[in-house]
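Catalogue entry: protein

Sequence with per-residue C-alpha cells
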Amino acid sequence: MTVFKDLITPAVFKKTLTFKRNELIKSSGTVDSKIYFIKKGSLKISIFQQDAEQIIRLGYTGDLIVAMDSFFDGCHSDFVIQAIKKTEVLVAEKEDFMHFVYESPENTSLYINILEGLVKQQLDREQDLLQDSPKIRYERVFKRNPLLFQIIPNKHIANYLRMTPETFSRISKS
C-alpha cells in the first residue's frame, strides 16, 4: 500500500463499496473503466472458457484491481471481477484517475511505476503458465508471494495455478 499512498485519496477514489462473498463486481461482456483499491477482503479476475472458470488474477487488501482491457480502451471485456469474501473497495473512475496522473510529473511517474509493476507481474505470470510441472508453478508463486497462500482459499489458488485442488493439496503438503 505504501506505493499507492499518494494515489489513494478522496479526490481520486470518490466511492467506497462493499461486496458480499461471491458477489460480482463486473460481469463478462460489460465495459468497466473503474479502478478498485481493495481496502479489506479479496477479489478474483476470471474468464470463462468452455463453461470452465480460469482465474487469471487474485487480489487482496492493499491491491489495485482493474479490467485492464476495458480500462485502457473502453471495450467490452470478457473478464469477470468477483469478491472471494466480503470485500470493501475504494472506487476511482477513469476520468478522475487520469486527471490525477497528469496533474503533476510526480503523479505521472507514480502511474508509470504502477504500469511497470503490472507488466512485471504479467511476465512472471506468463512464465508460471509456461511451466509444465504443477510443482514448479506452485513453488514460483509461493516464492514470489507467500502471503497469497495465507489469504486466498486453496481452491482459488489451485485454479490460478492451473491444477486440480487435489494436486494443489498434495504439492502443498510435500
Summary: The first helix runs from residue 68 to 73. The longest strand covers residues 52-60. The helical segments are 68-73, 94-103, 105-130, 134-144, 148-151, 154-160, 165-173.
